[in-house]
Task: structure prediction
Amino acid sequence: MSVRRIRRPLIAIVLAAAGATLALAPSASANAPLRAGAAVDGAPLTAVVLSGTGKIDASGAAVVVPVTLTCSQRTSVDLTVKVAQAIGDTMRTGTTVRKVVCDATTQKVRIAVTATERPFAPGVAFGVVTGNSCDALCNSLTDEHRFELSL
Result:
């Protein structure tokens, strides 16, 4: 049997195996984590969003971050807000954890995040807000993206 006669069936088998593997593999979206606005059915916390522009306070010692919460019923939410800002080769960071009562509507809260070592400055930063609610059902939602800090 020649090499050419062996090569064609071998290529066909490899292509069929690759196609079967792709058809049976789970999609990336099936394994995607919950994002802001994608709540567990029946859970009281339905959305948590880092919204608007952060306001620098106390000469950069803190930044006040606007967060929007949406709840289907009254619930207590543990919010964790993290802010990171790179300026040149230095990093400014801060984290705050606060318990907030969400009153079955969409509401805005302002969370103060204290700078860890260096003061925050006007410009772009990256923020992560996570809301955890644990009443009848527990759920956790996260929103993360860049946003502006201003005076």
